[in-house]
Design a protein that fits this description.
254 residues, Glucose Oxidase, domain 1, two-stranded antiparallel sheet, 11% strand
C-alpha cells in the first residue's frame, strides 16, 4: 500500500512465518531458523503470472459469482480493481476465472480465521499453542485451469507423451497476477479499506476488524493506492511422486 509520495505504508510478507512465538528472540522464527529451508516457505500460487499492477482494492468475500454480482447491485464494479478474497467455497482457480471475467487487475487470497482458526486468532488459540493456523500461515493452491501436468492435461506426463502446443498451454493459465497472504497481512490491508460495511455473511473472524468492501481508503490510513507484485517464474522442471505404503493389521492386501 502506497501513499501520495509513492512510499510503502504496508508491505506483506513474502516468507511464511511459522512456529508462533517460538524463535530465538521470542517472536516468529527468522528465515535462518526455519529448518525446512526457504525454498519451501515462499508464498505463491502455482501458475500465477508474474507482474506488477496498481489499483484500488475491494473485498469480495469468497470471490464467487454471487459475491461479484452483489457488488454490481451496489454500483461497485470490479473492473481494474485489485480484489481481496478469502479461500474457500470454490477452488482458487475458479476464483481466478471469475475475477478475470469481471475485469479484475489482480487478486490477493487469504485464509480467514473463520475457516482456519475458529477458536480465535490470538497467539494462545493458534499453532504452536493449538492446532489452528496462525496469522502468518499462508495457504498455497494451484491456479492451473486443467488437471495434471499443464502440457499433458488428462494423460500421464511420460517422456514420450504428446504435449500440447504453447498456445493451448497459455490458454490453461491465469492472465492476472495472484498472491496469497496470511490473515495477519490481510487484516493490515483490510483495516485501511473504506467504503460501505460488508454484509454479515461476508464478515469473518479477524478480531477487531470491521469488514468493508473498499474501493477507497480511510482518510487516516494515508494510503492512495495499492500495488501487487508477483515474481513467479514459469519453467519446465522434473518432479517425482513419492508414494508410501502402510500395511494394515487386518486384510493388509487391501
Amino acid at each position: 500500500m502506497l501513499d501520495g509520495s509513492n512510499n510503502a505504508i504496508i508491505t506483506t510478507s513474502a516468507v511464511e512465518s511459522i512456529g508462533g512465538n517460538s524463535g530465538s528472540g521470542g517472536g516468529p522464527y527468522t528465515r535462518d531458523e526455519v529448518v525446512l529451508g526457504e525454498s519451501l516457505l515462499q508464498a505463491y500460487n502455482a501458475y500465477s503470472p508474474s507482474g506488477i499492477v496498481d489499483g484500488a482494492p475491494i473485498y469480495v468475500n469468497y470471490a464467487r459469482k454471487e459475491d461479484f454480482e452483489l457488488l454490481k447491485e451496489w454500483g461497485i464494479l470490479a473492473i481494474d480493481k485489485i480484489v481481496i478474497a478469502r479461500y474457500g467455497m470454490i477452488s482458487a482457480r475458479d476464483k481466478v476465472k471469475l475475477a478475470m471475467s469481471y475485469g479484475v487487475r489482480g487478486l490477493i487470497l487469504y485464509t480467514d480465521p473463520q475457516d482456519v482458526a475458529r477458536e480465535g486468532d490470538g497467539n494462545s488459540a493458534v499453532y504452536p499453542n493449538s492446532w489452528w493456523l496462525p496469522g502468518g500461515g499462508i495457504r498455497r493452491e494451484t491456479l492451473l485451469f486443467n488437471d495434471g501436468d499443464p502440457e499433458t492435461p488428462g494423460w500421464p506426463s511420460m517422456s514420450n507423451a504428446y504435449r500440447i502446443d504453447e498456445e493451448q498451454l497459455l490458454g490453461s493459465l491465469p492472465k492476472i497476477p495472484v498472491q496469497p497472504v496470511g490473515y495477519k497481512d490481510a487484516k493490515d490491508i483490510m483495516s485501511r479499506l473504506g467504503g460501505r460495511e460488508a454484509p454479515q455473511p461476508w464478515t469473518g473472524m479477524m478480531s477487531g476488524l470491521t469488514y468493508r468492501v473498499g474501493g477507497e481508503f480511510t482518510a487516516a490510513s494515508n494510503v492512495v493506492r495499492m500495488r501487487l507484485t508477483v515474481n513467479n517464474e514459469l519453467k519446465r522442471v522434473q518432479v517425482s511422486n513419492v508414494i508410501g505404503i502402510i500395511k494394515g493389521s487386518v486384510e493388509p492386501d487391501r
